[in-house]
Known about the structure:
By secondary structure, this protein is of the alpha/beta class. The protein folds into 3 domains: about 5-135 and about 305-325, NAD(P)-binding Rossmann-like Domain (Rossmann fold, 3-Layer(aba) Sandwich), CATH 3.40.50; about 140-300, Dihydrodipicolinate Reductase, domain 2 (2-Layer Sandwich), CATH 3.30.360.10; about 350-430, ACT domain (Alpha-Beta Plaits, 2-Layer Sandwich). About 35% of the residues lie in helices and about 25% in strands. The protein contains 14 helices and 17 strands. The chain has helices at about 15-25, 30-35, 65-70, 90-95, 105-125, 140-145, 160-175, 180-185, 195-200, 200-215, 235-245, 305-325, 365-375, 405-415; strands at about 5-10, 40-45, 60-65, 75-80, 100-105, 130, 155-160, 225, 245-255, 260-270, 285-290, 295-300, 350-360, 380-385, 395-400, 405, 425-430. Strands 7, 8, 9, 10, 11, 12, 13, 14, 15, 16 and 17 form an 11-stranded mixed β-sheet that branches. The protein has a 6-stranded parallel β-sheet with strand order 3-2-1-4-5-6, sandwiched between helices. A hairpin with an 8-residue loop joins strand 14 (about 380-385) and strand 15. Helix 7 packs across helix 8. The longest helix is centred in the C-terminal third of the chain and has 20 residues, at about 305-325. The termini are far apart. The structure holds NADP nicotinamide-adenine-dinucleotide phosphate. NADP nicotinamide-adenine-dinucleotide phosphate binds near residues 13, 46 and 106.
Amino acid sequence: MRNQQVNVGIIGLGTVGTGVARVLLQQRELLETRTQVLFNLKAISELDWEKERDIDLSTVKCTTNADELLNDPDIDVIVETIGGFEPAFSFVSKALKNRKHVVTANKALIATRGRELFEIAQENDVKILFEASVGGGIPIIQGLREGLIANNIERIYGILNGTSNYILTKMHKENLEFSEALKGAQENGFAEADPTLDISGGDAAHKLTILSSIASNSFVSFESLYVEGITGITKVDINFAKSLGYTIKLLAVYRVFNGGLDLRVHPTLVENKHLLAAVSNEMNAILVKGDFVGNTMFYGPGAGERPTASAIVSDIVALAYDLLLKDEKYRTPTIKTTTDAKLIPIDEITNRFYLRFFTRDIPGVLTKISGVLAEYGISISSMVQLETHEKDNYIPIVLLTHEALEKSMKQALEKIIKFEFVKDDYLRLRIF
Ligand SMILES: NC(=O)c1ccc[n+]([C@@H]2O[C@H](COP(=O)([O-])OP(=O)(O)OC[C@H]3O[C@@H](n4cnc5c(N)ncnc54)[C@H](OP(=O)(O)O)[C@@H]3O)[C@@H](O)[C@H]2O)c1
């Protein structure tokens, strides 16, 4: 660390890496004026230098060998923007062992191997920061860690995956089936060629793991989260939701509940009058309730070159303060790995439910279904039948329930789908 200068190296000049390079070069003066620190982009490592990029890198050392950055004693901060697990994990751990701070947008890496990386960072007295890993350009991690530091975080409800939000929005607005909306999202650059991680809820779960660890000040294991994706949602469900005054959203939930944490990701019916229902297309939003502040809402672009780069550079600046305040007590905190969060199993959670069945149009169907629900202590709040959506002589019916235990709902459904008049492609959603 030289006087008031921070040297930065970027590994991976793809969408995000190019954005970071652009901010560091274009906003150099702005950052210096605001921080009194010169942020110097010293080197970039990238495998493919033939790729067309609209950026002037004549002042930057360009290489294909990441080790040239990782072993350079002059580089203070390594930005990892290659994504995936390997070689990203090896590069990040090597950087930390070489006493370099690391900034990454790699939520999969942080959510699944964060514990090892934080421990390596601590052993070497350096930091790994990851603002861009959740909510792209939205400063949610700094918001939780700093802006809301005076609060116990009671709840977080997040729309954290732009791809699934885009697909669900198109299904709602253009009356599309899931597969049609996914195809459109891929054609318009809002879904990857392999969208599995986004539509399965996995990506949102990576992000919820990170937010939950920060909010609870304890370590949350990604594997312990309850996760459902959006692939089972049909046009029929969208139309039912609309007719009942709801919008379907893939929601990530953090809730302090019964002395533990209720953490889950699943498609959810959100009342149209709620702010989260209005979060459309690829946008992200995170509602955070703290015990002193009450409800706060963070909203913005959850991905893209420029928003993600904006978040990464905010971490580089935070690290610069750390570097400059080396002898001081104040240091930017990250995730605490020494205490495990106590998760409440999904079976012990209560929710209101949306149940959609396709049934034969014969007398007594409803009595039998509601009888099973009653057997498990589940009461119905409303019921709708849309004959216009008849499929192969089966008619869809939807039941909304009052608050019920997840375990009871699971048992009741196992029994209901055994009725020969019920098709087995039912759908159960939670209501927010
Ligand atoms: N894109 C977004 O909007 C966004 C938003 C939030 C977070 N993120 C996260 O940011 C990370 C990067 O995403 P991205 O969209 O920028 O990915 P990307 O466009 O695929 O960029 C990755 C870049 O890293 C390069 N690379 C791969 N292996 C390398 C190696 N060993 N050494 C040097 N360079 C290497 C790739 O080169 P080749 O193409 O030649 O392999 C590519 O140029 C991911 O973790 C992602 O989850 C992305």
